[in-house]
Amino acid sequence: MESNKSTKRKRVDEKTPLQQKRVKLLEGRKRLPIWQKQNEIRSVLRDHDVLVLSGETGSGKSTQVPQFILDQPWCRGKIATTQPRRVAAISLARRVAEEMGTPLGSSSPASKVGYSVRFDENTSPSTRIKYLTEGMLLQEMLRDATMGQYSCVIVDEVHERSVNVDLILGFLKLLLSTRRDKPLKVVVMSATADVDSLRRFFSERPTPIRSAISTAVTADTVETDGNESGPESEASWDGLSDSEQHRAASMAEDDRCSEKSVAYCHVEGRQYPVLTRYLDSHSDDIMETTLHRIFQIHCKEPMPGDLLVFMTGSDKILDLQKIVEEYAQNLTSDFPKLLVLPLFAALSQAAQQRPFQPAPPNTRKVILSTNIAETSVTVPGVRFVVDTGMAKVKQFRIRLGLDSLLVKQISKSSADQRKGRAGREAPGQCHRLYTEAAYRSMDEHDKPEILRCDLSAAVLTMKARGADDVLGFPFLTPPPRDAMEKALLNLLQLGALQGTGRISALGRKIARLPLTPSLGRVIIEAARPEMDCLLEVIDIVACLSVESIWLNVDTEEVRERAQIARQQLAKRSGDHLTLLAAVQAYAAEQSDRRRWADDHLISHRAMQSVMDVRKQLTAQCKQAKLLLRTTEASSASDEGLQERVLKCFLRGFSGNVARLCPDGSYKTFIGNQTVAIHPSSVLRGRKLEAILYNEFVYTSKAYGRNVSAVQLRWFEEVVE
Ligand code: CDP
């Protein structure tokens, strides 16, 4: 019998490389701190509805928890695990598929693990574990408010407190008390131990239920008290008839309502000591200081290990990459080689995977990353962290009614997370490029996004999912009332809400598109027969979804070359039609697109993402019956088309219009704010009747980015 078994195992090993890899990976999984906690996690989830799980990044939460619970008797449906970023969702799904020895996503109908991110759904009919971005889970909630296919929803990285995570938590809280047909378990995971508010949030009943129950239950009493009814009632589930099952479900549900239970569990991280270094005085040129420190570490520190450098955004990362690579060429052969790898959300999928692969022999990796590598992903091999202390954050400017990206000092909690990345595999070093006093003056935690960004998308999502009383929604942190009112007004203006405040048919269509309400409105407008420019608008929207298609030009010679190359594409009406011309020319290029992009000083990488988004958006518009036309798109030079396209953008962005004033400046219609044309625009320096811009950026002054010339008469026509 034994030998039969081992022959069989041998045969399987010989046959499937996936299975072989699985066995090897199992050894690593067993060493993860969370491995020791698996029985506790299973037992706690058997007995409780909600588990709040905290543990250091890298302790194994995201990869292991779904696998621990997959075969539990209560878990017959799928397990959703949300991630704030697509790169994490994809790489986790890939990793877990390997660990389980199953193919990934749609590559096989038997695949058990898949993912769903904006513009890329990769699942199979047998998918049981699904990694999704938060936005995609919210989209699924629109299609099925009860989330009937899921037995468990795992909300990961809650400490990041994105707006989407806050919405998901609110919806799940409501769902826990209303889903009557099947039990639902919720696991909320955080890299920081600051979880009291979460425990309280889930322990307090949502308003309609609270009124029916006389005793309030606190987090701590809930954690330890009665929940025996859970496993028993579910264990006998199978033998019941449909109506009995229904009745039993209702009774079990009533039990759950009265004994809503929240458990808490903490996993100790694997953390080696990290030596922290500060600057003696503030640096005025952070790029220079970062460059200097990278080479200082590389040339003077005998300790092996890769470098992880935290920077603000892709533009700075790509600039520094170029400089580090130039300097690295002058290193003598006494030093290992340097391999510089960028890591930010807008990179193509293939490029995003490169930092995770081991460096070639005699080479040190230098990963230049945004805060994506702070907690979301674990980059192996890192022993040195260089922290610039800054991050780009979205900030709502209430007077302008717009979100803008601002470079801000990080919080202490972020700084500590960044530092922790140096000590995952062995003792490490964290080089903070700021003073110790600056560290001490940092805020303890980041402000939740819901307190600092435009809430239009959030409010539309709530309305579309039937949460009409948005001011009464169960928020972990209630957003400011004026921001909510502003969002309601914006949605009303877009036509997404009726005068009564309920969602309109148009609003429902917008909510189903994976875009902001304003861009969604532009798409819907472009699909109207009178406008008939959806294909062209999709191309432009695809460009706006990447940070920039244009490469940075830093030397005089390159700047001249760029000007000539870009003039060939530039359209007089402005950036929107110029972007369209660029996409059309790139798409028409048959022989060598990379060369075409280089010649035009356009980022080939960004264009690949644009083509990806364009394809997915086109498919979604076809599915939503918005796109009926099968003919080719019109040329960007067609003047009638230009007017129609810009009118569509006006419909979605009427708040982003500024008119020329006698003093030569532009002032917004709403808020009367001065706004200048961004230097990257083809319209820079031009004096036009009025301008429309898609994005507001604030650096040395207020700029509109992605700008086009519009006529005031169009504005009046569109806004009525
Ligand atoms: O969620 P948490 O940060 O606690 O840990 P995890 O993401 O489950 O990662 C556990 C370990 O799995 C990491 O330390 C990596 O060794 C490995 N992992 C990986 O190799 N590739 C991934 N995409 C994710 C995790």
Q: Care to give the gist of this entry?
A:
The chain contains 28 helices and 21 strands.
- Label the structural class: alpha/beta
User: Quaternary arrangement of the chains shown?
Assistant: single chain
Give Rg in angstroms.
27 Å
Q: Report, as a whole number of angstroms, the end-to-end distance.
A: 82 Å
Write out the strand line-up for the largest beta sheet, numbering strands in chain order: 4-3-5-2-6-7-1-8
Fourth-level CATH superfamily of the largest domain? P-loop containing nucleotide triphosphate hydrolases
Query: Looking at the structure, what is the overall shape?
Result: globular
Q: Could you name the ranges where pLDDT drops below 50 across 5 or more consecutive residues?
A: 208-259
Largest sheet: 8 strands, mixed
Helix content bin = 40-55%
CATH class of the largest domain: Alpha Beta
Mean pLDDT: 85
Supply the number of structural domains.
3
Strand proportion, as a percent range, falls in 15-25%
The kinds of small molecule bound in this structure are: cytidine-5'-diphosphate
User: Number of DSSP strands?
Assistant: 21
CATH fold description of the largest domain: Rossmann fold
Q: At CATH's second level, what is the architecture of the largest domain?
A: 3-Layer(aba) Sandwich
Total helical segments? 28
